[in-house]
Amino acid sequence: VDATTPSSVTLSSPSDLSYIKDERPTFKFKLASTPDATSGINKYTLTVDNGETGDFTIDDIPPSRTNDYETNKYLIHYEGFGDGDGSNNYIYIYTKSSSSWNNGENDGKLKTGKRTWTITAYDVAGNSANASWSLYADFTSPTLSSPLTFPDVVDTIDSYALVSTTIPHISGSITDNLFPSQIETTFIKENFFLGIKIGETVFLVEKNTINTAATTDSISFNIQPSKSMDYGKYRVEIVGIDKAGNKSSMQAFSLHILTDNALKKLV
User: Fold this and answer.
1) pTM for the whole structure
2) HSE (CB half, 13 Å, CA atoms) of 46?
3) Contact call for residues 224 and 167 (beta carbons, < 8 A)
4) Among candidates 42, 38, 79, 87, which has minimal Cα distance to 60?
């Protein structure tokens, strides 16, 4: 008689409440040193809750192997098995696009939104134990308002926006279907010799967090460099980023930072 549940597995990745941009992430979990004390483990299952539709399950995952286990729908990789050390046994699950998935299983892919994945261990007697984590799946890139603006600009000459402040502001908005998060700004200084451009140097790269709590929103921002810029001409590249790491199309601008006196002479 075996009335004891198996030892719970330890989920590893994707981590709980993480943000991902991969429709087919690697599901990884760690086995207990003694997964089941009585009858032994019979199998594991992976279940993905995809929301209202698109749930899928991978059943009959072998509990122990020293080589990969592959079907039309998925690949199971085993790490640490067979080395005599029960503390480092990991199982990795990769789904594949296949006609073998049933209708309504979304081809074994995640759908956009908050999703839950569960690993269940079954022993030979039918007892079970499970562990679940949630994640946020986001496959859509954010967008930046176009054009972005430089509020400190006094005038424009030869396509260069002229400013006299060494910490110029950049204003606009970022929009994302789920989680707008950051603005990445790169200031690339243009190097000149006797009036001829001879190269470029990356002067500053930084990310400004806009709103870590935002969901399905368009957020306005007004940012500036964290340190003073040198006087001179720059190419400024601006990209919006959501929490999953998706990036918007880049917007680029030419900026000329001058002293007050030099600016007065030009305008």
Assistant:
1) 0.86
2) 26
3) yes
4) 42
**Residues in CB range of 210: below 8 A, 6 or more apart:** 174, 180, 181, 182, 183, 219, 221
Residues 254, 258, 262, 266, Cα dihedral to 10°: 20
Structure token digits, residue 250: 């880049």
Is residue 48 within 8 Å of residue 41, measured between CB atoms? no
Q: Look-up: residue for tokens 């799946």? A: 137
Structure tokens at 171: 């204003």
Q: How far is CA 158 from CA 43, 55, 155, 161, 255, in A?
A: 69, 56, 10, 9, 10
Report residue 209 as tokens: 């967090």
What's the token pair of residue 154?
Answer: 């006094």
Please state, as a whole number, how many other Cβ atoms lie within 10 Å of the Cβ of residue 241: 22
Pairwise CA distance, residues 170 & 157, whole Å:
19
What is the phi-psi region of residue 42: left when phi exceeds 0, alpha when psi lies from -120 to 50, beta otherwise?
A: alpha
Amino acid identity for residue 232 in this structure: G
User: CB-side exposure of 154: number of CA atoms within 13 Å?
Assistant: 15
The helix (H) or strand (E) run that includes residue 266 is: helix 260-266
Sheet holding 217-223, edge to edge: 143-144, 170-176, 217-223
Say whether 253 sits in a helix, a strand or coil: strand
As averages over each run of 10 residues, the pLDDT of the chain (267 residues) reads 84 96 97 83 96 96 95 97 89 97 96 96 92 96 93 94 95 91 96 92 94 73 94 96 95 95 85
